Automatic annotation (TrEMBL):
<dbReference type="InterPro" id="IPR000566">
    <property type="entry name" value="Lipocln_cytosolic_FA-bd_dom"/>
</dbReference>
<keyword id="KW-0813">Transport</keyword>
<comment type="function">
    <text>Cytosolic CRABPs may regulate the access of retinoic acid to the nuclear retinoic acid receptors.</text>
</comment>
<dbReference type="GO" id="GO:0019841">
    <property type="term" value="F:retinol binding"/>
</dbReference>
<protein>
    <recommendedName>
        <fullName>Cellular retinoic acid-binding protein 1</fullName>
    </recommendedName>
</protein>
<dbReference type="Pfam" id="PF00061">
    <property type="entry name" value="Lipocalin"/>
</dbReference>
<dbReference type="InterPro" id="IPR000463">
    <property type="entry name" value="Fatty_acid-bd"/>
</dbReference>
<keyword id="KW-0683">Retinol-binding</keyword>
<keyword id="KW-0845">Vitamin A</keyword>
<dbReference type="GO" id="GO:0016918">
    <property type="term" value="F:retinal binding"/>
</dbReference>
<comment type="similarity">
    <text>Belongs to the calycin superfamily. Fatty-acid binding protein (FABP) family.</text>
</comment>
<dbReference type="InterPro" id="IPR031259">
    <property type="entry name" value="ILBP"/>
</dbReference>
<dbReference type="InterPro" id="IPR012674">
    <property type="entry name" value="Calycin"/>
</dbReference>
<feature type="domain" description="Cytosolic fatty-acid binding proteins">
    <location>
        <begin position="7"/>
        <end position="24"/>
    </location>
</feature>
Length: 133
């Protein structure tokens, strides 16, 4: 269930994120901010079944609200306008973003009480780990 993801999560480690941002086409200045940012990830679910995922940094806060398996338009923190679908698959929240003929996948799962986000673009993989605040 999505409920295990609900709460406030703080980024504790980030591996290969700069390479991932490069792979999805993020410019240098935005990457520098992205590498410095230590986002809090706030996940909640409302009574109507909408999931809210909010990323809060000192630079900016972005929020997406969605229903599982329903496509929506997302404007990402780095300014991409994507068609996004998030599904719940084998205990993972799998987010697929499509734009300009490209696709990236973000898989979030809970392991040992930590939330890991695996960001995949072609053969580039970044892993970001969050702990419950």
């Amino acid at each position: 269930m999505v409920e295990q993801f609900v709460g406030t999560w703080t980024l504790t480690s980030s591996e290969n994120f700069d390479e991932y941002m490069k792979a999805i086409g993020v410019g240098f200045a935005t990457r520098q901010m992205g590498n410095m940012a230590k986002p809090n990830l706030v996940i909640s679910v409302d009574d109507a079944g909408f999931v809210s995922m909010k990323s809060e940094t000192t630079f900016k806060t972005t929020e997406i609200k969605f229903k599982l398996s329903e496509e929506f338009e997302e404007t990402t923190a780095d300014g991409r306008k994507t068609k996004t679908v998030i599904t719940f698959d084998n205990g993972k929240l799998v987010q697929q973003q499509t734009w300009d003929g490209k696709t990236t996948t973000l898989e979030r799962e809970i392991q040992d009480g930590k939330l890991t986000a695996k960001c995949v673009m072609d053969d580039v993989v970044a892993v970001r780990t969050y702990e419950k605040a």
